[in-house]
Amino acid sequence: MNEKHEQLIADYLSGDLGAEDKSKVEELIAAGDIDFMEFRELEKMHEDLGSITTPKPGKEMSSRFYAMLEEEKQNQRESWTEFLFMRFKVALAELTMLRVAYAIVLLVLGGFIGSQINGSQSEIEQLSQEMQTMKEMMMVNMLEGASAADRLKAVNISTELPRADSEAIHALLFTLNNDPSVNVRVQTIEALKRWGENEVVREGLVRAIAQQESPIVIIELADAMIELELENGAQEFKQLLRERELDYTVQQKLQSSIAAIL
């Protein structure tokens, strides 16, 4: 990759480019002048090195946490297990969202459940469900953030969920179709592929094809159609080829994807 392209990509990833220059980068990738896989590697490196700020919980989330605390106080039993769990939930209201994600998952699952392995299976399952619910709440809340970095973090949090409920899936599909950041939409496709057996996800990915303008996102969706064997995607790609003036490289990618799917 030449020096000019490296600087252009660096400005693109840092958000310093205007709409015209962003389109230029995407056209260079679609044309093959910038290697797509090399771009993805630089993109991941930028994410790893970037400083990610975490939003403070909004009033609605704080209210929900305090409501949960009050309910726990009323129903708690005089046992060490219940007392420790309540203390964790009290701390939630004072932690930032990112700290909550790691404090809950790493400390509670790794420490508390590990030390209480001889406890009842039902209690452990209940705790796991509570933590998944909280994590999903944080993910959905962060997807609505103004910062692309925060929304990327929310997408990454979704990949840590052992399973996703309908609210989380619909939030990710909405992000795929509406987020202004190409990078966020690409990462959302990767996250959704984890639940590729879910019919809502499969239908949502196919419907998303017609909503996309970015060549990079269209190419990512083409790979997803092949990986998940979504034959309905072939019809959507054929329609794109008929109705739009796509870059030659994108046309070739879609034609090869159609052949692979069918």
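That was protein one. Protein two is written in the same sequence-then-structure order:
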Amino acid sequence: MAQFPPKKPRVPIDGVLLLDKGAGASSNDVLIKAKRLLNAQKAGHTGTLDPFATGLLPLCFGEATKFSQDLLEADKTYETVVHLGVTTNTGDTEGEVMQRLEVNVTRAQIDAAVAKFRGEILQVPPMYSALKRDGKPLYEYARAGVVLEREARRVVIHALDVLDYEAPLLRLRVTCSKGTYIRVLGEDIGTALGCGAHLQALRRTQVGTLTLDNAVTLETLAETPETERTRMLAPVDALLSTFPPVRLPELLAKRFLHGQRIALGKEGLPYPQYQGRTRVYAGENGRLLGTAQLMEYGILAPERLIADRAAA
């Protein structure tokens, strides 16, 4: 009987991989590959990108997975190419062509149409989406030829800029709230112009404060020597950069990690004139302890805590 070498045991790895996802792969596929390349015990992503889309996909490992929800809630920025005059059943290049119309619009008409979609808008989620109805994702109904009523949702388009227009291709940059479908935005702009549209390309360039500046591709990760791959990870607190920091001495840090509330003023510590979420560090080495709610009178209430691997 053939003998196979034993699988390497997974190891605890904490951090964030800023992945520049290529086209054609699902977010879950690239997560599985990255987890295998890093030999990590625990991993998760921070919101999916459609297979045809490219760009920033932050992947969380170990303790960073505790804070992935914060990126799900964050604003996002995309660059997209909208193909005017052609509609598809999915709203992107992966679908079947449904209609072809002549494109005869001016830049002034485009600017006027685009202006209607800035700010708070109502958007009907597409049938080809992972939203669930009676336990089934909508795309399963769509593939079976079933179209269900969907309630319009309020989303916010913080910025919407025309980068270029050379008929029939319209290039846009969009900064939007969570839950925004760029495919639907492209289709709605096409409808407003009277010629229909679908997305030819979509690239995510920013999630919250994270950008593509230090992102790496899956190919680069695979080509890097195994012993050096973890150096590509950003620290866990890269997910928390918008929260003000609070620093505790070691004695108070231990109490904090046991879930105790800390009255900063009574302990003789300064505290920010701020109420809300904060990131908490300990001691001279400044290791991250987790997040907390900074409440009235400087009360620090533990929220999500980082496991102390050294003590484990």
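The longest strand covers residues 153-166. Keep this in mind for the problem set.
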